[in-house]
Amino acid sequence: MRREKLTPERIRRFACPPDRKQVFLWDTEASRLAVRATAGSKSFIFEAKLERRTIRRTIGDVRDWAVPDARVEARRLQTLLDRGIDPREQDRQERARRAADKAARETAEREEQERRRYTLKALCQAYVAMLESAGKKKSAANTCSSFRCHLYEANPEIAALPARDVTPHQIAQVVRQVREAGKERAAGVLRSYLSAAFNAAKRAPLDGNLPSSLIPFRVEHNPAADIPTIPVQRGKRVLTPGELRDYLAALGPHLADQALYLALLCAGQRMAQLLRVRVSDYQPETATLRLWDRKGKRAEPREHLLPLGAEANALVLRLMDRAQRMAQERGALQVDPWLFSSTGAVPMDTGTPGKRLAEISHAMGGQPFDLRDVRRTVETMLAALRVSKDTRSQLLSHGISGVQSAHYDRHDYMEEKRAALIAWENRLAEVAEGRPAGAVLPFAKSG
Description:
InterPro entries: CB, DNA_brk_join_enz, Integrase-like_cat_sf, Integrase_catalytic, Integrase_DNA-bd_sf, Integrase_DNA_bind_dom, Integrase_recombinase_N, Phage_Integrase. This is Phage-related integrase. With 447 residues, this protein is an alpha+beta fold. The protein folds into three domains: 3-85, Double Stranded RNA Binding Domain, CATH 3.30.160.390; 118-226, Orthogonal Bundle (DNA polymerase, domain 1); 241-433, Orthogonal Bundle (hpI Integrase, Chain A), CATH 1.10.443. It is built from 17 helices and eight strands. It has a five-stranded mixed sheet, with helices on one face. Strands 6-7-8 form a three-stranded antiparallel sheet. Helix 4 (120-133) runs antiparallel to helix 5 and helix 7 (168-180) runs antiparallel to helix 8 (184-203). The longest helix is centred in the first third of the chain and has 31 residues, at 87-117. It is elongated. The chain starts with a strand and ends in a 14-residue tail after the last helix. The model is unreliable at 402-410 and 439-447 (pLDDT under 50).
């Protein structure tokens, strides 16, 4: 073992012979310190024994370490050995600690990024996108409007919170603000929309029918579920025969008026469904109009068939002729035209007939009414005509999503619906003439 006092000059001259892989020059000042020389490098090393095991540890390149500093490090390592501590194990622990610290920092940074990204607002937006992709355009628009007005704009600090951290108290605060502003129905609807969004995100990891975009929100509970539901005040407005007569008289030849008239003739059909009708949805052989009911949680829209009465059938034929002429003028004969369209390219906006009805209601004076009130009026009068509840449900496409209707009752109710629509047209004829229910005269109204 060659041992000399290490100096920069001695280290410079020290070299590994060509026939050796490595050689060592041991220091006389720090007995466990040496310079190891190989064919391409020189470094300070420390070597000693711990429990009869040789411990060798590289301190560093001689170009990076001064001799005094290397001696200090060698003595430090010897001190550890004297205490029974293996420097290599200490190094491993230090590397593990640093790795753990790095992982913790990265996790914290990732968590913070997720907190900033997967907020309550982002969850609401993802839920609206889910409704849109499911074809529920109107529901998506209504939901988006409620969130924007009562959450994004009114409570931006809550909207910016991570969705998974939102508490029931915060949801209650949002809903209470709307309710205390006198908007009882809007508050109930907002609570329902928020609950639906949280439920969708909560179920997404296990439900393949839900979009994967909801999974990263990591929602484990629904804070809106703890908020009591707000009962919606049931509508009671029913038009009198005189009001219904004035309403009929106000309907003119414009397309929105014709949509309102056909909805009325067809026993108060939902306007959104009626405006989606195309020419191909009419079956001339049976005078049947097909609607698609997308309302509720249906994965696929339900086919809703209406066997038309004479007046409704005549109106549909006129509307079909108009739609086909528009398609011909646009050079779009191969396209299946919309029955209600101002341009032929897109269906009429669902809000247009409602606005027109509001104009008529305002002009009539008295208590205002809307499309829901007209629909309620029709069902009330159908009940007075002794049309059964089952037939009314089939005719208005509501209350038929239960187990019995979905799985067991396979009757199509076409004859019952046809008889009811004919009886309804006859009753409207009586109303238009100002006659009480009784003898029926032919009903004719120009469109």
